[in-house]
């Protein structure tokens, strides 16, 4: 991750920083969010570099010399598509589903939103917990006084009179295609502040659903993958890679052991450049 990507991610974390100390679980969540933002930024940077490498004006670039030496192998993340991480089949509700049926389906499926479909399974909208809360709030307190109350009531007027999924839903729906890249779907979810995205195929028919959690897991490398790459680096940088013990937890790499301290800075620098490493701890001792 570049310095710019680190900075962008950290700014987002600071913006959401609470006034009280974080709990352990909150620290893990914020760390995951930083890795998520960095992964999206990294994917965007890779796409920009790819596009800038293409020629302008429709001309093709010259091929490399036939005898050119191959570039050394580097780790490249697989291009994941939405189809690889979506959940199928997806739960949905028909447009004529009553208010209570929608609420029961949300509770049963343990999701915060559901696609609303027509008789041909086309996605026509999305109904969420907030849509149901808007109706329930107006039902509980139909009259609010004052300018703020009138404005609040005006904004929720349509929701308060809806009795079916079609009259409660938000539309037009924001959807993604199964062939879209996970990074692009993540941008769509982040831009719209959406927790779930319906996945639509031919003619807008529902084929699955992908959540922010699904996208997060796809974009963040597993600690085991990072560990394998660090151990490979140790084999190239150290005379005896077995002299060090490497552990990885939530993207933080710890290197311990008795080694030649002159070799450590270069090794740690290489570790910091590994995709999705968020921190490096040097616990080595001079041999």
UniProtKB/TrEMBL annotation:
| Ranges where the CBS domain occurs | 86-148, 169-225
Tell me the PROSITE patterns matching this sequence.
Answer: CBS
Ranges annotated as biased composition (Basic and acidic residues): 1-15, 48-59
Origin: domain of life: Bacteria
Q: Which InterPro entries match?
A: CBS_dom, CBS_dom_sf, Diverse_CBS-Domain
Q: Which UniProt keywords apply?
A: CBS domain
Enumerate the residue ranges of region (Disordered). 1-27, 44-74
Name of one Pfam family that matches: CBS
Where in the sequence does UniProt note compositional bias of the Pro residues kind? 62-74
Protein name per Swiss-Prot or TrEMBL: CBS domain-containing protein
